[in-house]
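note to self: dont lose this again. the chain is below, predicted strucutre after it. 135 aa total, dont forget to put it in the shared folder this time
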Amino acid sequence: MSATPNTPDTAALSAVPQRIVAAWAEQDADGFAEVFTEDATLILPGDVFLTSRQAIRAFMTHAFAGPFKGTRVAGDPVSVRPLAENVAVLVTRGGVLAPGDTEVTAERAIRATWVLAREGSEWKIASYQNTPIAA
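---
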């Protein structure tokens, strides 16, 4: 993983994906949405383009009741790059795990870009976009 040497927030930045993983494991749309800023952007393959925490919460509520029901996600940081005092870019590799999967399959593997913004003492997702690796 690349990061600015001795950056105190590198661990905090790298922990953001684990907050998403934990909320997804609980199928918790509220917990998932709370990791995002109020005016966050979420872009997913297909035609998913969401522009608020409220829209992200509604989308995930529907997704956890339907296509993502019983799934989990994995996401490991491969790059952490602070851009300014309160802004950073994180790149992860991961994907969705279907029920019974122990690792992400090649057809569900993704690389994602996260723009993180500090709100108070907490890092939140201001923008997230992922791209399938197998495409």
